[in-house]
């Protein structure tokens, strides 16, 4: 995710994909033009990266030149007219290939056709790296198209937002929803996730979703979901992924306007972590960090047995079930540390001490994010 001026943008098209697309376009143009020496005409400013990469890949001799859009005041003082300038070379009888970074409404293309009307070129071909079919309002033929994209604002690879972003080697898309802060509170059963989440949600004005709590409230209400979950929870096993993922998605949807979420007890498997990434992506957002409370197993068992005396939770009352929950954690959940480490999002916090001490440690980590 990047911020340019006041707006946030998310990664959209990678350098690798752009490179492969340009290679394909070069191959198409070269196959069509054979031994003819074309004049490639870039439309500044946006096309400078595309033209540079395109002609470097072009396998045969070619000429390269540029034209540039300049704004003039129109007949009415409120109206700006865009004109292309810089076409100084005689192009009579030449095959001209226009290299555009992006074609959306087609207004620039109309201007290109206007200035080439009297140039007596042999052929005028149009090649564009990006094309927005939904926005295109003209009938001019586009001979070579790189990638069709939705009608959303993009920056990078020559394209700017108010002057910034042209230098980025990949393309980013404007985020349409507000910026959210989301983190996963991680750790084995009894690490103190629920306790700490209650403080953190107040401090950062976030919505706290504990999948364990949602299951327990379903059990209390005797819903079908609750009955299904109970059979697993009573043994200290995990509820199946798809059931849990569907429930989590519904909980997030219920809080559409949230500033962000603290996920507690979710994800617990690789499949859940992937589903959470996908859900965040659909919301134009992401998981900012996994914050893990690190506590020794024997401390966990003692804590959970202690909690079992008052919590009324059947899975806290029996040491065998507690140990099974911890085993499930190491078997299925602990691997998620690597998942988030690979994304540079893992932050470990010592989870032993008194409650307010641990809250302070967490706040220190979160404030640095
Ligand atoms: P917790 O309150 O987080 O300790 O969760 C209590 C129990 O609910 C777990 O032992 C599981 O049976 C079930 N559960 C909670 N979250 C999940 C999850 N993300 N995936 C599967 N099962 C879960």
TrEMBL record:
<keyword id="KW-0547">Nucleotide-binding</keyword>
<feature type="region of interest" description="NMP">
    <location>
        <begin position="210"/>
        <end position="239"/>
    </location>
</feature>
<dbReference type="GO" id="GO:0044209">
    <property type="term" value="P:AMP salvage"/>
</dbReference>
<keyword id="KW-0545">Nucleotide biosynthesis</keyword>
<feature type="binding site">
    <location>
        <begin position="237"/>
        <end position="239"/>
    </location>
    <ligand>
        <name>AMP</name>
    </ligand>
</feature>
<comment type="similarity">
    <text>Belongs to the adenylate kinase family.</text>
</comment>
<feature type="binding site">
    <location>
        <position position="211"/>
    </location>
    <ligand>
        <name>AMP</name>
    </ligand>
</feature>
<feature type="binding site">
    <location>
        <position position="216"/>
    </location>
    <ligand>
        <name>AMP</name>
    </ligand>
</feature>
<protein>
    <recommendedName>
        <fullName>Adenylate kinase</fullName>
        <ecNumber>2.7.4.3</ecNumber>
    </recommendedName>
</protein>
<feature type="binding site">
    <location>
        <position position="353"/>
    </location>
    <ligand>
        <name>ATP</name>
    </ligand>
</feature>
<keyword id="KW-0418">Kinase</keyword>
<dbReference type="Pfam" id="PF00156">
    <property type="entry name" value="Pribosyltran"/>
</dbReference>
<keyword id="KW-0067">ATP-binding</keyword>
<dbReference type="InterPro" id="IPR027417">
    <property type="entry name" value="P-loop_NTPase"/>
</dbReference>
<dbReference type="InterPro" id="IPR033690">
    <property type="entry name" value="Adenylat_kinase_CS"/>
</dbReference>
<comment type="function">
    <text>Catalyzes the reversible transfer of the terminal phosphate group between ATP and AMP. Plays an important role in cellular energy homeostasis and in adenine nucleotide metabolism.</text>
</comment>
<feature type="domain" description="Phosphoribosyltransferase">
    <location>
        <begin position="20"/>
        <end position="161"/>
    </location>
</feature>
<feature type="binding site">
    <location>
        <begin position="265"/>
        <end position="268"/>
    </location>
    <ligand>
        <name>AMP</name>
    </ligand>
</feature>
<dbReference type="GO" id="GO:0005737">
    <property type="term" value="C:cytoplasm"/>
</dbReference>
<comment type="pathway">
    <text>Purine metabolism; AMP biosynthesis via salvage pathway; AMP from ADP: step 1/1.</text>
</comment>
<feature type="binding site">
    <location>
        <position position="307"/>
    </location>
    <ligand>
        <name>ATP</name>
    </ligand>
</feature>
<dbReference type="InterPro" id="IPR029057">
    <property type="entry name" value="PRTase-like"/>
</dbReference>
<feature type="binding site">
    <location>
        <position position="272"/>
    </location>
    <ligand>
        <name>AMP</name>
    </ligand>
</feature>
<keyword id="KW-0963">Cytoplasm</keyword>
<feature type="binding site">
    <location>
        <position position="325"/>
    </location>
    <ligand>
        <name>AMP</name>
    </ligand>
</feature>
<feature type="binding site">
    <location>
        <position position="313"/>
    </location>
    <ligand>
        <name>AMP</name>
    </ligand>
</feature>
<dbReference type="InterPro" id="IPR000850">
    <property type="entry name" value="Adenylat/UMP-CMP_kin"/>
</dbReference>
<dbReference type="GO" id="GO:0004017">
    <property type="term" value="F:AMP kinase activity"/>
</dbReference>
<keyword id="KW-0808">Transferase</keyword>
<dbReference type="Pfam" id="PF00406">
    <property type="entry name" value="ADK"/>
</dbReference>
<dbReference type="InterPro" id="IPR000836">
    <property type="entry name" value="PRTase_dom"/>
</dbReference>
<feature type="binding site">
    <location>
        <begin position="190"/>
        <end position="195"/>
    </location>
    <ligand>
        <name>ATP</name>
    </ligand>
</feature>
<comment type="subunit">
    <text>Monomer.</text>
</comment>
<dbReference type="GO" id="GO:0005524">
    <property type="term" value="F:ATP binding"/>
</dbReference>
């Amino acid at each position: 995710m990047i911020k340019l001026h006041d707006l946030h943008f998310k990664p959209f098209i990678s350098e690798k994909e752009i490179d492969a697309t340009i290679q394909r376009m070069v191959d198409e143009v070269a196959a069509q033009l054979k031994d003819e020496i074309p004049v490639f005409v870039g439309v500044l400013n946006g096309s400078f990266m595309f033209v540079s990469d395109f002609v470097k890949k072009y396998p045969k001799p070619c000429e390269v030149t540029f034209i540039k859009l300049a704004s003039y005041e129109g007949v009415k003082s409120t109206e700006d007219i865009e004109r292309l300038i810089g076409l100084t070379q005689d192009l009579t009888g030449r095959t001209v290939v226009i290299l555009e970074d992006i074609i959306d409404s087609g207004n620039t293309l109309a201007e290109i056709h206007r200035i080439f009307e009297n140039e007596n070129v042999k052929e005028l071909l149009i090649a564009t790296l990006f094309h927005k079919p939904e926005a295109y309002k003209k009938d001019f033929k586009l001979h070579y198209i790189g990638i069709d994209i939705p009608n959303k604002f993009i920056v990078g690879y020559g394209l700017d937002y108010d002057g910034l972003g042209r230098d980025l080697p990949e393309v980013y898309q404007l985020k349409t929803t507000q910026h959210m802060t989301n983190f996963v509170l991680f750790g084995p059963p009894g690490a103190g996730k629920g306790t700490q989440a209650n403080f953190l949600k107040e401090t950062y004005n976030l919505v706290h979703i504990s999948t364990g709590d949602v299951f327990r409230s379903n059990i209390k209400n005797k819903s079908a979901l609750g009955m299904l979950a109970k059979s697993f929870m009573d043994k200290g096993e995990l509820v199946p992924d798809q059931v849990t993922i569907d429930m989590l998605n519904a909980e997030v949807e219920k809080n559409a306007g949230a500033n962000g979420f603290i996920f507690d007890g979710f994800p617990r498997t690789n499949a859940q972590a992937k589903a959470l990434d996908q859900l965040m992506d659909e919301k134009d957002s992401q998981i900012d960090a996994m914050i893990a409370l690190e506590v020794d197993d024997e401390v966990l068992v003692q804590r959970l047995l202690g909690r079992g005396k008052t919590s009324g939770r059947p899975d806290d009352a029996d040491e065998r079930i507690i140990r099974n929950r911890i085993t499930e954690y190491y078997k299925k959940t602990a691997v998620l540390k690597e998942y988030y480490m690979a994304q540079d999002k893992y932050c470990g916090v010592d989870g032993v001490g008194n409650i307010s001490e641990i809250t302070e440690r967490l706040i220190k980590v979160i404030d640095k994010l």
